[in-house]
Amino acid sequence: MDTKLPLFASALAAIGASLCCVAPLVLVTFGVGGAWLSTLTRFEPVRPVFVALTLGLLVLAWRTLYRKPAVCEPGKPCADATVMRRQRQIFWLVAIPLLLLLAFPWYASLFY
Questions:
Q1: Residue 53 neighbours by CB under 8 Å, 6+ apart
Q2: Range of 38's domain?
Q3: Averaged pLDDT, 30-34
């Protein structure tokens, strides 16, 4: 199974989970303001769904990279150890910012 789809989907789910918290801060930082920013708090009730979806997809990608034995024919790109190492590096380069994005409500007071 390819890890691109779970990583991409978890990134989209994390963005959805952070709409209520991070989006207003980012928009104000870019100079966009207005009363309509408060409407982004409507996404707060669905945040747990997006958080669960993000974590589930990250676990699926981790399981594919670390726990599932690689079944690959010799000579294929997936049999190369450097390809697997690069995929794992990309996973962590995506997973760490996503987890920080999900944890934003706990450290948001440092920015407001």
A1: 9, 10, 13
A2: 4-110
A3: 73
